[in-house]
Amino acid sequence: MIKIKIFFMLCIFGMISIGARAIPNNTIYYTSLYGKVVNPNDSHAFGGATIVSNKYSNGQGIITFDKDVTSIGEAAFYICDHLTSVAIPNSVTSIGNYAFGYCYGLTSVTIPNSVTSIGSYAFMNCTSLTSVTIPNSVTSLGSYAFSGCYGLTSVTIPNSVTSINNAAFSGCSSLTSVTIPNSVTSIGGSAFDGCSSLTSVTIPNSVTSIDYAAFMQCYSLASIKVHWKRPLNIEDGVWYGVDKKKCVLYVPEGTWSMFCSAPVWMEFVNIEEFSDEPEEDIYLTIMGVNGAILQQAVEIGKTYKYLLDNKKNGKIVAVTFNGEDVTADVADGKYTTPKITGNSEIYVEYDNQPKGDTNDDGVVDVADITRVASIILTGKTKEEE
Predict the structure, then answer these.
(1) Are 164 and 140 spatial neighbours (Cβ–Cβ below 8 Å)?
(2) Separation between Cα atoms, residue 348 and residue 310, nearest integer Å
(3) What is the pLDDT of residues 72-125, one digit of tens each?
(4) Residue 5: CB partners within 8 Å, gap ≥ 6?
(5) Which of these, 30, 66, 104, 279, is most buried using a 10 Å CB contact count?
(6) pTM for this structure?
(7) Cα(349)–Cα(180) distance, rounded to whole angstroms?
(8) Beta-carbon neighbour count of residue 291 at 10 Å?
(9) Do residues 123 and 101 make contact, with C-beta atoms less than 8 angstroms apart?
C-alpha cells in the first residue's frame, strides 16, 4: 500500500478548456480530402451495426449507424485514400485486419480506450500518419499493424501490450525512438525492421524473447539500453545492419562481463554499465473549473475511481483522460481510470462554471477549490483505491 499525497493549488490563468467532445456510440466522425463523402468498403463491417446515413458538411463527415458500433471490421476503410482523419467511438473494442490499410492520406486517428486489439495490417502503409497513441486498453498489436507508416515519427506503446508481433512497425523509417513497456514479453520477427531513423531503444527485463531481424536495418541506432541481469539468448540476425562499433549497449550494473562474453551481445564494441535510478513518484492530476487542481500520487498498473459530479457547477459537459475523450465512461458522476502507465491528467468541464468564491464566504481560498473541484476518492481518502 502506498500513501497518497493530495494537495490543491490555485491556477490564476483561468479555466482549462477541453477541446475533445463526446462521440456518440452510433457515429463515426471523419474528414476527407476535397471534402467528399468517404464510403466504407462494407456497410456491415461494424460489429452488426448498419449504416443509415453518411453525410459531409461544414468540413466534417458523419457516418450514422442504426446502433452502437462495436468494431471496425476487416478492410472497413481499406484503400480509402481520401480519408484524412477519423474519430472512433468509445463503444469500439477491436480494429480488424486491414481496417485502415493503405489509407495514404490519413494524418490523424483517435483510438478510444475501449479498444483492446488492433489487427494485422490495420494501419499498414498509412504513410501520412506522423504520430499515434495506442490507448492503454490495447493488449494485442497484430502483425504488420503499422508497417510501412514511413511518416510516423513517434509512437506510444502502452503498458497493457504484452507482445509486439511480427513486423508491427517495420518500415517506419522516420521513427526516431521507442520505449518498450515492461508489460511486453515478446518482440516478433522484423518488428522494427527498416526503422532506419531509430536512434535509441530501451528494452525492459520483462522481454523473454526477441525473434529474428527484430531490429534489422536500424542503421542509425546509437544506443540500446537493456535491463536483464543476465544476457538474453537471441539469434544472430536480431541486430543485423546495426553498426556495433558505434552503437553503445547499456547494461545493468554488475553485468558487463557477462554481456562481453555472451553470443551476439559480445559483438558490441562499446558496452557500458548503468545504475538503476530510484523511481520517481507518478502523479494523476485532475483539472477542472477555474483551474482547480487535485494531484494524487498513484501507482503504475492501478486504476482509480473518482466522483466528478458537482451540482453547483451544473452538469458535466466533457471529461478527458490524457487528452482522450472519456465522457461516455462517466456514470452517475463517477469515473474509473484505465490502468495507470505514467503521469496522467483528467480534465473536467461543467455547463455552469463558478467564478472563484464558490462557497460565498467572501474569500477565494483553498476551501473554494475544494468546493469547486468536488473531486474525491471514492471510499478511501488516504490510501490507494
Answers:
(1) no
(2) 10
(3) 999 999 999 999 999 999 999 999 999 999 999 999 998 999 999 999 999 999
(4) 281, 295, 296, 297
(5) 30
(6) 0.68
(7) 34
(8) 17
(9) yes
